[in-house]
Specification:
The chain has about 150 residues and is mostly helical. Helix content is about 75%, strand content about 0%.
């Protein structure tokens, strides 16, 4: 589970930085202002959701595999449809790449992002915090007393 998340996060994070550099160094003087703004919106949402996936990758011991997989798929689909779609559409004047009639997929990606966040809300509301006795016994007595308080926020 963690390997899949980390590889995905690494790829999306790398691409967000790469596409950001392309936008700032190559495209900023070639695209009309509205298209450049849309390009950057795609990049921002890509990085936000990449960082959210990174945070979720550390929750593999706390959350169920099915929960993580649902959010992973929703955010992955959102990045591909919304972020990549918006970047392709906004650079079509320069690259000659176009989504054409498939541009309706961009808002579907946005809906996928929203569904992922809604699912996180749902899971947060139904989350039952349990203390793991195994976890506390694995520490020395001095470190377990100082770290045994957990915040449920």
């Amino acid at each position: 589970m963690t390997k899949k998340y980390l590889v995905t996060v690494g790829i999306f994070g790398f691409l967000a930085v790469l596409f950001g550099a392309v936008g700032d160094h190559i495209l900023k003087d070639k695209l009309v202002t509205e298209n450049l703004a849309n390009y950057h919106i795609g990049l921002q949402y890509m990085m936000y959701h990449t960082l959210a996936l990174l945070a979720l990758s550390f929750g593999h011991k706390m959350f169920s595999k099915s929960f993580l997989n649902v959010v992973y798929v929703l955010f992955f689909v959102g990045i591909v449809l919304f972020s990549f779609g918006l970047m392709i559409q906004s650079t079509s004047e320069y690259t000659a790449l176009s989504l054409g009639p498939m541009s309706f997929l961009i808002p579907m990606g946005g809906l996928s992002f929203m569904a992922g966040w809604a699912y996180i809300i749902y899971m947060g509301l139904s989350f039952k915090h349990t203390k793991s006795h195994k976890h506390h016994h694995s520490r020395s007595s001095s470190s377990s007393s100082s770290s045994s308080t957990h915040s449920e926020s």
